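Workshop exercise sheet. Pairs work together: one partner reads the sequence aloud, the other fills in the structure field after running the prediction. Swap roles for the next sheet.
Pair: D.N. / O.F.
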Amino acid sequence: MLAGNIPVQKPSIIVVLGALAAAAAAQPASAQGKLEAHYTVRLAGLPIGKGTWVVNIGDTSFTAVVNGATSGLLKVITDGRGSSSARGTLQNGRPVVSTYTASIKTSKKSDDVTMTVAEGQAKDIKLEPPLEPSPDRVEVTDAHRTGILDPMAAAIVRVPGEAPVLGAEACNRSVAVFDGRLRYDLKLSFKRMDNVKAARGYSGPVVVCEVAFTPVAGFNPNRYAIKYITNQRAMEVWLAPIAGTRVMVPFRFESPTPVGAAVLEATEFVTTASAASVGGATKSVKN
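Structure field:
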């Protein structure tokens, strides 16, 4: 998820990207993989941001780190940078405990979030600046912090069972996401298959999912941005596989906005599969 890494008004294309999928951020212990990707963000065809995403999936742990910055026309308006990360432990291929951090800094303000998610429960939440009381905001309760994924873990999709990795099963799911301030649901549904070709790395089929956003808590229902994105039925996420695993991650995300289409797309998408051999050595295959 590149959530929270290009400094724009929430909720936005970047916030939604922070949880484009559901399920676990991992594979069974017999599979390991790594992703190194570069993305660009365009609004109405104009470049406004760029970022990198590195994901490591091991036998008993996982890490995911995003760094981003404004570019093009938006950089003239505001020079901003952001980062987000999640790291944690795995059990039976699923995250047990993860630590999530996100930071956005511009010339005018900064926003920092740190929290721990243990078995679906958000704990030790630290916000800077603190959340100011507002009678117009839907209050976040303890129940809203339960049964959730952080945005980074949610952006990594593990296709369950024996279903084809590149198939409809990657899309047909819902996920509850909490980013420390906003609690929302994303519902994905299969739309079609397509093909992509990065300038470096992956070239091949992707699964295209329709994305529906539903705010749950931590938001002002009167805000235009919330109403606009909630009513959208044209948002899409394109999922591509990490080689050697049953994990899918976003290659492309697009959404209409009042000023034109917002598109985040990978320009480089290099994945490496590592399988442990009997002798304890590893063999890597890049895609």
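Discussion prompt: The longest strand covers residues 183-197. What would you look at next?
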